[in-house]
Design a protein that fits this description.
CATH topology of the largest domain: Adenine-n6-DNA-methyltransferase TaqI, Chain A, domain 2
Largest sheet: 5 strands, mixed
Strand order of the largest sheet: 11-20-16-18-13
Structural class: alpha+beta
Number of domains: 3
Distance between the termini: 33 Å
Shape: elongated
CATH architecture of the largest domain: Alpha-Beta Complex
Length: 409
């Protein structure tokens, strides 16, 4: 039986009642589960949660006020952002904005079914929105309950929908765990290769092997659909690695003479960043055309393999040294004179041809690892994206019951 025929049979001629979410769920305020201190450590046992993108903020040694979700799973719902997570392990809570959502009766409505349905709802948030959503909004939303007059059949349909979506979720989780392991392996191997232990190498400062060229200012008002190709500093740390000609920004052509450019082979470095880690991130520019750079960026001009330099700038050793030369404040800013003192390895320093050949060999190896762990066009990230899209498709298909016109979700 095909998947579509199976779903048609599962959902065919199913009577549906649309009930307010508040009729089938109950919520609990987090007050007695809030963590008292932020003395987090990986050595402690109990995770501290937020409903945002970073689910686990850290681990606490507090033993009182723990929510025992390992016994009774729960949905945590952020009242301000409407972000929600399925939690089946014990935890404490960081934010008072979080609510714990449970089913009023698992004999009528499965909590996991409610969770999957919640994630079919489109976001209604707007910029600057900072109001609470559960009581005034979400409890009034209508959730479809199949076969309301036959609880046994209703639970069977809910359970089968949950089983199918759990399978997709588990597959994605396995792939994500595999990707995490591969990234760790890649980072270890990259750092090992670029330490050159027991091999012929000389460590030189960036200032010894090249020069830094600061960009010229342009603003959002200068952006144009058809203009001069440009790299904005913020794009560097969202596209870490190498650019081959594809860009995110273009600025007005009439500014061409007042801008500064990175040439093919330059490494473009972010001079500021949202975090200390973002500052100093670099991309190798290997496109054919010169590209304009913002004045919070630098083009590092040198005679080495540009991708070799960008990989060297990703190692733990380099990042540790670079962090000493970041001015911390409202804006984290790279101190370029200090950056010029950070060292990178030069293989076979007495033989330029042999050195470049070794750099190219290392780049080829790391490119393969990078594609496996970071590329959305190949490797594990692409497969994970496909599985997430497949999951979302079937989730929406399974939970898109016929809806009367008078029902507003």
């Amino acid at each position: 039986m095909s998947e579509m025929n199976y779903l048609d049979k599962l959902l065919s001629e199913v009577a549906v009642e649309w009930l307010p979410l508040g009729d089938v769920t109950q919520y609990e305020q987090p007050a007695k589960y809030l963590v008292s201190t932020i003395n987090y450590s990986d050595e402690y046992d109990t995770p501290v949660l937020t409903a945002g993108k970073t689910i686990v903020l850290g681990y606490t040694d507090e033993v009182d006020g723990i929510y025992n979700a390992s016994q009774d799973p729960v949905i945590i719902f952020d009242d301000f952002t409407t972000a929600n997570k399925w939690i089946d392990f014990d935890f404490k809570i960081k934010s008072s904005a979080v609510k714990m959502i449970t089913s009023k009766s698992e004999e009528k409505t499965l909590l996991k079914y409610i969770y999957y349905w919640l994630n079919t709802l489109p976001s209604e948030l707007s910029d600057g929105d900072h109001k609470r959503h559960w009581i005034g909004n979400y409890t009034n939303k209508k959730i479809p309950i199949p076969c309301p007059d036959s609880p046994e059949k209703s639970l069977a349909i809910q359970a089968e929908i949950v089983r199918i979506l759990d399978a997709f979720t588990e597959l994605t989780a396995e792939l994500t765990a595999e990707l995490t392991a591969r990234k760790r392996q890649y980072h270890y191997y990259r750092d090992h290769l670029l330490r050159f232990e027991g091999r012929e190498v000389e460590w030189k400062t960036l200032g010894e092997i090249g020069e830094f060229i600061r960009g010229k200012r342009f603003t959002k008002a200068d952006y144009a659909e058809d203009g001069i190709s440009a790299i904005h500093y913020g794009e560097i740390y969202t596209r870490y690695g190498a650019w081959t000609g594809e860009t995110f920004s273009k600025v007005r052509r009439e500014l061409a003479g007042s801008l500064r450019y990175a040439k093919r082979g330059d490494v473009v470095i972010a001079g500021v960043g949202e975090t200390v880690e973002d500052v100093g991130k670099a991309v190798a520019w290997i496109g054919e055309q010169d590209i304009a750079i913002h004045d919070d960026s630098y083009a590092f001009r040198h005679s080495m393999n540009p991708k070799f330099i960008s990989y060297a700038m990703q190692t733990a050793t380099f990042i540790s040294e670079k962090a000493k030369h970041v001015s911390r404040g409202k804006v984290n800013r790279l101190l370029i004179d200090g950056m010029a003192k950070v060292r990178v390895p030069i293989p076979y320093p007495g033989d330029a041809r042999k050195s470049l050949a070794e750099q190219a060999r290392i780049v080829a190896i790391l490119d393969k690892f990078d594609a496996l762990t970071n590329s959305l066009s190949e490797g594990l990230p692409r497969e994970i994206l496909q599985r997430k899209q497949q999951y979302a498709y079937y989730r929406n298909l399974l939970l898109s019951f016929p809806k009367p016109e008078e029902v507003a979700v």
